[in-house]
TrEMBL record:
Protein name: DUF1837 domain-containing protein
Organism expressing this protein natively: Gluconacetobacter azotocaptans
Occurrences of domain Anti-bacteriophage protein A/HamA C-terminal (ranges): 11-266
InterPro entries: AbpA_HamA_C
Length: 270
């Protein structure tokens, strides 16, 4: 699968830091450029997490709105009101992490349904943030992998330690995993995508069908927030899957401005 153009802006810095419990944290950098073609492609990719472009005309029909008005008022989190801005930053982080594990690590990551089935545009979707599946061979086997990732965005200064928040939420995934897999499977069944539902089903009982479980925690941080975050105080000592836990920080300049720009372009170019 070709790498989406915007992921050329996501690079491994080679920098590593260790947490208080000795876990390694990878540091990646997101460095967007003023390239209208790539930004438009990224905005389309972003928009289609909320609605397929082929479905947009029928959904807009009867509303009296333009495509852009419909997206802003009905599907996209609000730019300024209530929980909208934090949801925008959270969705951005989750989608970026999903891009990372799909295109850099080679997992199947069916994430669009998570956003397309959202009833309230300013209310986050419950369950595990990002789930990836990897099949080692044509026949299911113990080398198949389930990657469950928690993502937390810190795009504005605050007292929160977003990597620690992601680690703590990752601990909760032990209980949420089964419900999240069921939700993904249900969405595929509802759409008649039975083959995809079966692929998810393969990971619903590790006792009957062994596989390798990997957990991850990611913090997506504006450069200013990154500069004020001490990653070495974070700890995953209480995590249930310490031996298969991946930690990553993605940093970048003025990321909230980028987030709003992507949403605006995604609406205007629909």
């Amino acid at each position: 699968m070709p790498l989406p153009d915007h992921l050329a802006w996501l690079t491994d810095t080679g920098q590593r830091q260790n947490t208080a419990c000795g876990r390694e944290v990878q540091i990646w950098a997101l460095t967007p450029q003023e390239d209208a073609t790539i930004l438009s492609s990224w905005a389309k990719h972003f928009r289609e997490h909320y609605i397929n472009d082929t479905d947009l005309p029928i959904m807009v029909s009867g509303t009296g709105q333009s495509n852009a008005e419909y997206l802003r008022s009905t599907l996209f989190p609000d730019r300024a009101q209530g929980s909208g801005p934090s949801l925008r930053s959270g969705d951005f982080g989750e989608i970026l992490v999903a891009d990372y594990i799909e295109h850099f690590l080679g997992y199947w990551c069916p994430r669009e349904l998570r956003y397309q089935d959202r009833w309230n545009r300013n209310d986050s979707t419950k369950g595990c943030d990002v789930i990836g599946f990897k099949f080692a061979n044509a026949v299911p086997g113990p080398d198949d992998e389930l990657f469950v990732f928690e993502s937390k965005s810190g795009l504005r200064p605050s007292l929160a330690h977003r990597l620690q928040d992601a680690i703590d939420d990752s601990i909760k995934d032990r209980l949420r995993e089964g419900m999240s897999l069921n939700a993904i499977k249900r969405r595929f069944v509802d759409r008649g995508a039975i083959d995809d539902a079966r692929r998810v089903e393969r990971f619903q009982s590790i006792a009957d069908r062994p596989f390798r479980r990997i957990n991850g925690a990611a913090a997506i941080l504006d450069d200013a927030v990154f500069a004020g975050t001490d990653l070495t105080v974070a700890t995953a000592a209480a995590h249930f899957n310490q031996e298969n836990l991946r930690l990553i920080v993605i940093r970048g300049p003025d990321l909230m401005t980028l987030v709003h720009a992507l949403y605006e372009r995604a609406a205007d170019e629909a």
